[in-house]
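Fold sample X.
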Amino acid sequence: MSRKKLFEDFGKSSAIDWKNQIIKELKDKPFESLVTKTVEGISIQPFYHQDNSDFNYLNIQNPIQNQHEALPPRFWVNQAKIVIEDEKSANQKALQVLNQGADGIIFKISKADYDLEILLKDIKAEYCSISFQSDEPFYSYIKKYINYINSHNIDSHKLSGFYLCDIIECRDAGNIGLNDKDYESIAELIKHADEYPNFKPLCISSNLFHNSGANITHELGLTLTKSVEFLDKLTDQDLKASSILKSTVFSIAVGKNYFFEIAKLKALKLNLLKIAEAYESKIDADDISIHCDTSIRTKSALDFNVNLLRNTNEAMAAIVGGCNSLWVQPHDEAAGKPSSETFKRIALNISSILKEESHLDKIVDPTQGSYYIENLINEIAENSWKIFLEFEEEGSYNHHYENGNIHQLIDTDAGKAEQKLWSRKDVVIGANTFQLIGENVSEYLDTEESGKSLEAKRLTATIEHMRYRIEKLVKEKGENSRPMAEIISLGTDPVTKAKADFAYSFLGIAGIGISSEKIEKELSQVKDSNEEVSISVLCYSDKPSDLNDYITNQNKIILIAGQEENEEQLKKLGLYGCINRNVDTKRFLDNLLKDLGIALI
């Protein structure tokens, strides 16, 4: 049978055909019941079809960042980051990671007088990306680096890299005050950009928005507003918007929502092209350079090895989304200690494996033709553009920052995300489910975060703080001081099993151990537990007739997994409370630890 004949045997189905079939299968349920609304205000449809993908999809795949015949169809710089303690050791580390698979080095600087002759000894700047990063601006050092390149007769057109220092972000983080001289220094470097077209002296970053808790559309909307702030300041320095954008690296944090993060990078490019057009400047999508960092916010200090999986997911999203450069944070840094050389090597290898073994470099844009992702790109672009326009109508980025509008927006997003975490609607392995009870929790967790809105914060920080309360007690008084619970399951039916599983994770958030799980048919068959057990959790599908008597005769803390209509009456008999998804988990566990004699820290 020919290929043509094969396809003739199957009729073509339209989007309406699919929808009608779904409605038929749903019977009495409405089609809208299958639509999911995200925190970004995006409606996730039960299916996507070519008929509903009629918007203009620009070719923004960012195929080859450097025109070189040896490069694969898809290329990104695999970055290693080195904090400079002294020039000689930093140079040795740089040479080592370049031999281990890195394509570029990001030197973290804290002053402007490092000796470049020592720092860059034996490093061929023509063949790798050399970049710098700082928490406050050192533009004089970037000028010094450019002079170093010129004095060594290095072809400036082969020079690649960037300077990761967004001065507005530095101000927002509380590191500096804004200074007009910094804009003048940026403008001076950009005016010579034709001499080194692949080195980006200006950085516009979304990292602080993302890591402080902003959702995707707010993150992009704020990044666009900040971009216009930079464009306005620098066009006042007699620069064209096209020159500014071509001299900019957009530093973007990539989170765990895989398809959304892919779409985020492409939506950013779409909207930046619209901004360039508003400035009457013509740029192509490939003129926009994006450097990606894996997220700080998504990592957890609890069972931190799971961060390796999170990093891999985020790195894949960055690569497929079209990043030019990628740095993967070593997955042990969330645990509060300096990363080991082993974990730094693992982080570097993630990008190498995705290229060499997963072959993500073999195709220009694997998302082309995915109606779902194309719709996401369009919706994220439109929603973030609306946010951008709303901010622009009311004033500049600095106006909104000073008025507290940006803080309020991010605070609201972060609060909603934390509620989802504590209610376990957002599952984080090791933190609110499948906890590793008894793991060592670092002492740096003995205080809560500072409370500043624009501050990189792990989403799990409040859970880590609660866990530290018990682990600190155990460290001081021994493992026997850990509060222990028993699970009492009346039957093995799916409902009872689900409630038992819920109890494990619920108590595990606080670091409460589970000594045993008893399975009995009736409550009267439950024998007295060991003295070490201070909590009993009852799990059942059908309420036992002797529940009231059992609660009355118990001396330990009794919890019921699930909901009871007469919970208040049961509390009068001695029930501590019911645990379920509608409970304020943080408040409940705080009170439980307090009643167990474990004080707040």
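Fold sample Y, listed below.
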Amino acid sequence: MSDFLFSTRQRPPGELQSALARYLSHVSVSIEERHGAWGSLAVARAHHDPADVLVEEDGWLSVLVGEPVVHGEGEPSARSRVGERRRAVHRLLKSEPRWAWERSIDSGFAALAIDTAGGGMVLTDIASFVPVFVARVADAELVIGTHVDAVARAAGRGRDIDPVSAADLAINLTCTFPHTLYPGVEQFPPGTARRFRSDGSWDEAHAYWRPVERSAYRTVDEAAETLRAAVVGDVRAACEGAGEVGLLLSGGEDARAVLGAVPPDVQVRAFVYADWQNREVKVAQAVARAYGATCTFGPREPDHYVTGLEPVARMIGSHNNFMDVHGWGFHERLGIRDLPVVLGGLSSDSFLKAEHAPATASDVDRFELPNAEVIRPELREAVIERRLRFRRWLAEFRPKTATEWEKLWPFTQRKHSANVHGNRRLFAAHEVYHAVAVVTLAASVPQEWKYNRKLFHAAMKPLFRRSWYVPHSRWRFPFFGHAANLPLSAGLRITRGVRALATGQVRARHQPWPKWRTVVRSAAAERIQRERPAWETPLRDIFVDAPGDELQAGVRQWHPLRELMLMQLAYLAERAAE
């Protein structure tokens, strides 16, 4: 199920439905409402969702967002058994909130249970891969939902903009937990179960999981075996009951490992996107052939991202960058949304290869902002203070690696997290590296084991065997380790260099995504910036007092993704104020 919006006070019919429809009508086949003395609930159902997205049994009503694997004695273990799985979760949600949730519901999800006699419970996954947002209205009402802008609108906060959060999003591409673009609307903590009462009050929160910094394995090989078993087990559970599944493939190695873990009796339809049939596409196609999968290439139009700005920004909201929803449009055009499950390889670099570990020892009491001179200096200082406060909180349970995990946990702190927030609303997405066993292992091994693919390669090498001869789209062979790749990568560079000279493609772009500066300087993007300058929208208060042309010149000094984020925020802020 895609999204829910709930109020502990009974609202007039159509009010919550309208708030969700404002942002999700174009990706929903229906938006249902329920009302009672317990409050009001609206639920948006996407094309790939089951017909019955609500479970009503034994005086309780429950909603499950996402399609996790459910474990438990006598309960379904397969993701494909939709009805049984939802009823199993329904029964779990009614139980004591101090349940070992990480051992029961696996991968990204958010859940809401409502006791029709009053009160209920909210539950988030271990990293908030599906985030939940909460606002208090007066003293006796809570508004809870999975779309931040819809929550703000239902709570009467949509016209308010928190200038510190707006500056934070424009500068850093994420909003420091637990804040959002809207004052009074906060992100619910990850890995948390909490009951609420009919009067809008909360019981004590049960934080059932935190990424505590500890060493749970004696050797890299021991951790690697556990990691491989976790990936293989998650893929098998996700594929169970499905004769055919989808896979978002690339020219890299993360999704290739997922492909290698797919059971042999399951057919795979792989998909790859790019501007043209470049090396990224050709490597993905070669990998698919090696594993007996089909591979469909989705060529992007020049204005693919700019055309998608408004519909994608509405769909994911203001909490993360719309640019990362690469599959917009392809979900229909390539038939991705019709598949029972679509596997992905996102976050392996982040969790398992120390992508966000500082290159050198960093000062935990110092946070550097990129160029943002057109943002008011007092707001920049407030952003730094928020970031440092969040880092200090993380350091309470990750004292040595807080500067790495501040970009990982909760998942909304990842600047590319909109990939998941978008995909889950477009098709039945399942990210393998978001499995509980993978994330908990990533939190439980030394950072040093992750460098140079040491842990990842030891775990995944058997899954690469069928494609050992297919190189990465970059300069290595995934099947081989760091030392073996030194001479191999040199030969690969020479071979590819000669081929580029022979074909006249010396300066051709072989990466999966376009140059973002080319996107932001396109005629379509510049037209949007002229028609809706951010300093003439509700974002005006974040900028220094200067003429528009000077502000525009300052913004053009930014990284292009920050410019595009500013375009997104300007659009959503105007829409919220309507």
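Sample Y note: Residues 338 and 561 are 31 Å apart (CA to CA).
Also: The chain has a mean pLDDT of 92.
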